[in-house]
Amino acid sequence: MNEEPTKDLATRAFQKRVLDEFAAVRAEQAAMRKDITEIRTDIIEIRTQQAAMAKNIAAIDQRLTTLEKTVDDRLKETRPIWEAVQEQVQRLVEKFDIVLQELYDVRTDSKIYGRRIGELERRMLS
Questions:
Q1: How many whole angstroms separate alpha carbon 2 and alpha carbon 8?
Q2: How far out from the chain centre does Cα 56 lie?
């Protein structure tokens, strides 16, 4: 018999294992390429969402700036009115203090006159 077929079997088995390993490596590479493609797609989506959020934040910032300006303008418009109201309230407080003082004076005078009338009535009865 020829010994060559047995030598050939060992070589073929080794070559088959090597080729199977290469095929497995290629399959893994294909799966990794698919994963990388999905990751890139996710990154693009995230960047798109980030850009949209940045635009929204810029719009909110602009609206806030406009609102602050409007509030400042309104404060400037209403400040003289508010100061006039405060001045009028202060004058009312002062007038009310005078009215209270006069009321206290009237009460005091009323008590004094009540005592005098009481004394006069006692004198007349006695």
A1: 11
A2: 15
70: how many CB neighbours lie within 10 A of its CB?
10
Compute the distance between CA of residue 48 and CA of residue 81 in angstroms, rounded to an integer: 50
Q: What is the mean pLDDT of the chain?
A: 89
Structure tokens at 87: 């001045």
What lies within 8 Å, CB to CB, of 37 at 6+ separation is none
Tokens of 90: 């202060």
Angle at 59 between CA 50 and CA 69, to 5 degrees: 150
Average pLDDT over residues 80-89: 92
- For 16-40, how does the pLDDT look when each residue is reduced to its tens digit (9 = 90+)? 888 888 888 998 999 999 999 999 9
